Structure of TetR family transcriptional regulator:
Amino acid sequence: MVGMETQLASTPDTASTSPAKRTGGRSALVLAAVRTAVEELIKERGPERVTVPMIAERAGVNPTSIYRRWGDLPTLINEIATYRLDPERPLPQSGDLRGDLTAWAREIIEHYSTAVNAALLRAGAATAGESESDCLRNRRAEATMFVARTPNPPVTADQVIDHLVAPIIYRVIFLPWSIDGTTADRLVAELFDRA
Amino acid sequence: MVGMETQLASTPDTASTSPAKRTGGRSALVLAAVRTAVEELIKERGPERVTVPMIAERAGVNPTSIYRRWGDLPTLINEIATYRLDPERPLPQSGDLRGDLTAWAREIIEHYSTAVNAALLRAGAATAGESESDCLRNRRAEATMFVARTPNPPVTADQVIDHLVAPIIYRVIFLPWSIDGTTADRLVAELFDRA
């Protein structure tokens, strides 16, 4: 699981792929303060009750700086959410598709088992639908990679999305209390037993 | 598919099960005006940019009336959303579980193919997680009923939720452009071919 420290430490690398948002010195401090403020406020109040002025006050920055950098609150929340599961993290690579997908599903479930991550996912859902969120695009790229590197894969990437990622995300959003230590293994078994 | 007229016409019946919210005369008119205002504003601005004062202005009612009746915006949106797929509507009943689930999945997809219904679902997702939304509890009750009335069902109600409802809702929220006329049949085939 990616903790707060890891995310902050990895910020310069992640940001270096996006020159318009290069972060260094004061800018990196502002980003870290805003991210912490968003995460705390979402946890305390729920995503639908957080406003830009609240975030600015908590982070000790001017609201104008937030509007200038992110445009609006949905964009800000979506960008913060994309930092959560580092797309550069090492992925399971046992050589066995079923084993790798099980480890990967367990990691996603563990990631969303924290209240802040689940709240960020719900906030992202509210603003989704026009373009795929970076966060879910990364999961889809990972599913595609797992399947593509397997000779004669018994499942397609779309089936991994529909029968492994979708039920996890659905339960995280709507039925978080129904997820337990057996969920990842059960879903992978149901995905493969249909092949 | 449940249209606007059907929902409004069915309001007295639905409301009669909840005495605290009995509607008649002026109260029913206010409910209809507020519902229309919420739906229009969500469609125009996206769910995260709608406020109670905006809804009050559009509906021609005092914001205080809205706060008194619903408490806050998330509660209001969730209640409006629960009116969308009437739980009293007739369900497919061909005697064949696979056929019934296919017709049911097509109906859910058609329901969420309109922009307002999809936006209400996303707004509901943002406020979910503490208790199951009425809307999804109804779908779960329906899945349970389909399976329970089938002798020796090849799938469980949980599998219907994970492998049919979850991928539909996931795609409606995050990948609406990926849903087409083949989605319901494909997902049902994948659900049953694993049995």
About this structure: Chain B has two domains: 4-82, 97-193.
